[in-house]
Amino acid sequence: MSATTAMEVNAEARRILAVSISKLYASRTQRGGLRLHRSLLLSMVMRSARDIYHSSRESEELWGAQPTSEEPMETGSCSGEQTVLPEPQPEPQPAMISAEPPSDEPDSEDEGCDGETAEDKENMSPTKQSRKRRGKAAAAPDFLPSKRARLEPGEERHAAPPGSCRAGAGESLIALSLNRVIPAF
Amino acid sequence: MAGVAGGNDFQWCFSQVKGAIDEDVAEADIISTVEFNYSGELLATGDKGGRVVIFQHEQESKNRPHLRGEYNVYSTFQSHEPEFDYLKSLEIEEKINKIRWLPQQNAAHFLLSTNDKTIKLWKISERDKRAEGYNLKDEDGRLRDPFRITSLRVPVLMPMDLMVEASPRRIFANAHTYHINSISVNSDHETYLSADDLRINLWHLEITDRSFNIVDIKPANMEELTEVITAAECHPLQCNVFVYSSSKGTIRLCDMRAAALCDRHSKFFEEPEDPSSRSFFSEIISSISDVKFSHSGRYMMTRDYLSVKVWDLNMENRPVETYQVHEYLRSKLCSLYENDCIFDKFECCWNGSDSAIMTGSYNNFFRMFDRNTRRDITLEASRESSKPRATLKPRKVSTGGKRKKDEISVDSLDFNKKILHTAWHPKDNVIAVAATNNLYIFQDKIN
Question: Residue B165: CA atoms inside 13 Å, Cβ hemisphere, count?
Fold first, then answer.
């Protein structure tokens, strides 16, 4: 898969994931209660979209040696930022990110988030890794709506972003949605 | 029986349309099920508001023998009401999911109607006589003063205006945790099955306080759930056999003589997936929305999102016939996912002789396939072609770049006008097609 098609597939997968999640939430308020069949089909689509999203990201990483628009999005997602595709994002911590090989992303992201939340003890335990991380899914949720304002290019992130909790919440949303929606019945 | 499509021998023409013409359709009026009874004399519809309307076929008029009789309203009643499950804080919709008639055994008619949670047995009976001349009460029902009664008389039956009464005779409740999708009367005329997403129960028509669970596919850990039951039907002749379809596109045939719990199937019908057509939505479009046995009991038909398949019960590894309903939608699956149309559950039906099958599509189109000639036809249920005895013109959807005259392009299709429910008269070439809140009745032209 070429870099461009990988990006297209990636964008498509993200879009489908966003649509699916909104459908899942909307179904909670439907008359007659949650429909098991519909929820199952939604979770299957989300699973395929997630798998394709990750495999297309791997293809992208193979193609792009320098930091692509993907990496800032990871740290962006760590901050709970919503990114607009495929606009490149500023890298709040370029030194940390570009030095890490892709396979270590979850760890670096952990450190980044944990380091940033050192002062924000209220919202998150700084030493504990989020138990809900699922490998590559850790850096996923940039297609989710975020309540945080988007950073202007060039701006630096100073305070501990409460959005770092959102990162855990965001990606765990995927895992949550996929694995918990059915047992909710 | 003649074929379905074109030619000199056979044409479909408009007969009647029931329902309001308003542009604004009330949600409660949307028809959710259509079913002829065993003789075809009665036609029942259920709607989202929980009502059942039964139409009766009037005899042909002697003055106009070239017209088949019409269907007129026979009885209307409120079958189900909205309920609230206080324990789960869930509203239970009153929408009628299915109606199934019982074979007629006496003057009254019986049908089963179900919503998501409760099945009801209704008795529809006629009253055209009234007893008059009681000894103890007046004509208006008040008790007479005993001192005034000086003689004895036998009440006499006097004719009265026909009154059709519907009364609930049995209520089969509290047996389904999940939403009921099917009911099916057994050929023994004593039992019936009801199916929800994960379980199938067998009932006796006389007993409401218990039922047998015959299929249970609920996994111990719900996180491992991979498929649900989407439809179930009893075999038309063998009272020990039933089938159920799944969201994965498979059908299981079970024999109730084998075990009390039929979790292990006797036959497993599945067509291997074509790997080249795999997409995000492969699972959704392979989910079976309806399964129907042929009248002969030799075949069964399944409907998934894009096609109808006919299976020979003796061959499990692939269907014997596959008909594409609207293949032009395959490239539009993403948009259909976004507007929720991909979740629509289309039904299908056989004609009386099993030589033809029918199913619905979008834009108020419905499709018929002749199994012998392999011809197919697309027709439209619309007010424009609603003149009495007007012949229906075949419709065509243009898939290529060039759109011919009278063709409709895929992008012009109205996806809000969907035909999910159709029914074919058990003996004659008369069909009932539910288009949102309208019921269209078409019949063949008698030459």
Answer: 9
